[in-house]
Automatic annotation (TrEMBL):
ACT domain ranges (all copies): 456-528
Protein name, per record: D-3-phosphoglycerate dehydrogenase
EC assignment: 1.1.1.95
Pfam hit, one: ACT
Pathway terms, separated by semicolons: Amino-acid biosynthesis; L-serine biosynthesis; L-serine from 3-phospho-D-glycerate: step 1/3
Species whose genome carries this gene: Azorhizobium oxalatiphilum
General function of this protein: Catalyzes the reversible oxidation of 3-phospho-D-glycerate to 3-phosphonooxypyruvate, the first step of the phosphorylated L-serine biosynthesis pathway. Also catalyzes the reversible oxidation of 2-hydroxyglutarate to 2-oxoglutarate.
Family of the protein in this entry: Belongs to the D-isomer specific 2-hydroxyacid dehydrogenase family.
Biological process terms in GO annotation: L-serine biosynthetic process
Catalysed transformations (reactions): (2R)-3-phosphoglycerate + NAD(+) = 3-phosphooxypyruvate + NADH + H(+); (R)-2-hydroxyglutarate + NAD(+) = 2-oxoglutarate + NADH + H(+)
Organism lineage: Bacteria, Pseudomonadati, Pseudomonadota, Alphaproteobacteria, Hyphomicrobiales
């Protein structure tokens, strides 16, 4: 029986044709993106779901998706799909990481011109018969400084266009290597430097814990008077209330937003300000981009449904059905070791060394390495996947080295991930026990024994009496339950570490208090 795919958003017709040509039954029901009840009612009849951003793939939808094998996002951001819930159901989630990048970069440039010359306002006034020639005095962009926050695929295209416009382009992106910055032709700077120098700031990062409110009230206060701000990436990167205040005071000269904290944005703090230009998430909305992403998603989904081939999956490596059961726990281990290192890293990674010892060395280590790199980069990159992770690492000048050797220590299989950055070297090792659960067994040469948990705290401290008691009382007083507690130290009175699993997320103020405890060097929240 031919697999069945439902298209529940406005995808280009090109996708329908590809599915038909490949022998996949396809139903084109774009109205379902806004009708979650109807979608839940019929999703059980389909093997594949092709979407853009209107369809929200929630755990409730996935619960009803008894046949679903693959979700294809015709676009980049998969924030409308509950990835953990899809993964838990074994549903592959694919995206199309490059098909709409040029179009979105062009939208940011269009927004920059709209702000510089107040084109929407001048258009409205002219068409109202006012002919207000003196009201609309613009600014020239040539020789102005364009500050790009997030210089990945789209940011790099914006940079190229900005340089073409004779602007001075500076970029803040902790994961941009100096070599890549040189190739793109941008000056790599720290955030404060960008804020102080840029005449126009444009954002091109994913929305993550680290990028949320990257333009906060405090950051906006560090910008130049007269700065213009563009967001064509994700709502939530800029504090909209603080930006409105900065526009009202005249500190910020203009803002152009395509994306908003709440979408669809029927109301928003920025609305109604005379120097604000808004579009309804149109960044990817060109015929060319929509055709690119529709063709690509239909090809990828057909390949998977008909032949089992996986590409651009955000939640699974490319492996065969026979390899999967043996590899799966080690994939999880590699990805979690990478994630552990990635969550603790805020600087430019130069080298990643992965050592496979014992039985695991005979497995498909390319997939394991990809999973480790995807885990490492995911805290920083938009929806990096196991297929794209190695090439992204290469593009960023990260050297990846793999070593295999016979088991030397206590474990049948051991994976060690070491990263070198411009500031430090960090190593973490893990294994999979007979229960199939991945575990951390060594951090920086200090032995521990901890499972990965949804909410954890990693603490480094001096091995002095009293720490555990003080820490436990602090969490107890804050009403936070400690689920597991793993300790290690290099020697008596030396460096110690603790990996603590807690029930529920850790509030920032509690973390601050932990960091302030005597002898604590650092305390970081981790999620797995
Ligand atoms: N408005 C629209 O319709 C569209 C919006 N987008 C959004 O644009 C954004 C960027 O997409 P791509 O360039 O394809 O992603 P990408 O993954 O290629 O680039 C993101 C860049 O942000 C950087 N970054 C991560 N954390 C950072 C931090 N804390 N500070 C500074 N930089 C940081 C990363 O190193 C990376 O270079 C995504 O959020 C995507 O969803 C994409 C397409 C259309
Ligand atoms: O499909 C769209 O219109 C939105 C595109 C987008 O935001 C993305 O690809 O991340």
């Amino acid at each position: 029986m031919a697999p069945r795919v439902l298209i529940s958003d406005k995808l280009s017709d090109a996708a329908v044709q590809i599915f038909k040509d490949r022998g996949v039954d396809v139903d084109f029901r774009p109205e379902l993106g806004k009708d979650k009840d109807k979608l839940a009612e019929i999703i059980g009849d389909y093997d594949g779901l092709a979407i853009r951003s209107a369809t929200k793939v929630t755990p409730k939808i996935l619960e009803k998706a008894t046949r679903l094998k693959v979700i294809g996002r015709a676009g980049i951001g998969v924030d409308n799909v509950d990835i953990p819930a899809a993964s838990a159901k074994g549903v592959i989630v694919m995206n199309t990481p490059f098909g709409n990048s040029i179009t979105t970069a062009e939208h940011a440039i269009a927004m920059m011109f709209a702000l510089a010359r107040q084109i929407p306002q001048a258009d409205a006034s002219t068409q109202a018969g006012k002919w207000e020639k003196n009201r609309f005095m613009g600014v020239e962009l040539t020789a102005k400084t364009l500050g790009i926050i997030g210089c990945g695929n789209i940011g790099a295209i914006v940079a190229e266009r900005g340089i073409g416009l004779k602007m001075k382009v500076i970029a803040f992106d902790p994961f941009l290597s100096p070599e890549r910055a040189l190739t793109i032709g941008v000056e790599k700077v720290e955030l404060d430097d960008l804020l102080a120098r840029a005449d126009v700031i444009t954002l091109h990062t994913p929305l993550t814990e680290k990028t949320k409110n990257v333009l906060s009230a405090e950051a906006l206060a560090k910008t130049r008077k007269g700065v213009r701000i563009i967001n064509c990436a994700r709502g939530g990167l800029v504090d909209e209330v603080a930006l409105r205040a900065a526009l009202d005071s005249g500190h910020v000269a203009g803002a152009a937003f395509d994306v908003f904290g709440v979408e669809p944005a029927e109301e928003n703090p920025l609305f109604g300000h005379p120097n604000v230009v808004c579009t309804p998430h149109l960044g990817a909305a060109t015929t060319e981009a929509q055709e690119n992403v529709a063709l690509q998603v239909a090809e990828q989904m057909s390949d998977y449904l008909l032949n089992g081939a996986i590409s651009n999956a955000v939640n699974f490596p490319s492996i065969t059905a026979e390899e999967a059961p043996k590899l799966k726990p080690f994939i999880a281990l590699a990805e979690k070791l990478g994630s552990f290192a990635g969550q603790l890293t805020d600087s430019d990674i130069q080298t990643v060394r992965i050592t496979y010892e014992g039985a695991v060395a005979d497995q498909k280590i390319k997939a394991l390495t990809s999973a480790a790199i995807a885990g490492l980069l995911r805290p920083a990159l938009a929806d990096v996947n196991v297929v794209s992770a190695p090439s992204i690492a290469k593009e960023r000048g990260i050297v990846v080295e793999e070593t295999t050797r016979a088991a030397e220590g206590d474990y049948d299989s051991l994976i060690t991930l070491s990263i070198t950055s411009d500031k430090y070297e960090r190593a973490v090792s893990g294994t999979v026990f007979a229960d199939g659960q991945p575990r951390i067994v060594d951090i920086k040469g200090i032995k521990v024994d901890a499972e990965f948990a949804p909410s954890m705290i990693y603490i480094t401290n001096e091995d002095k009496p009293g720490f555990i008691g003080r820490f436990a009382s602090l969490l107890g007083d804050a009403g936070i339950n400690i689920a597991t507690f793993a300790l290690g130290r290099d020697r008596q009175g030396g460096d110690a570490i603790a990996l603590v699993e807690v029930d529920g997320p850790l509030p920032a103020e509690v973390l601050e208090k932990v960091t302030a405890l005597p002898h604590v060097k650092q305390a970081k929240p981790l999620t797995f």
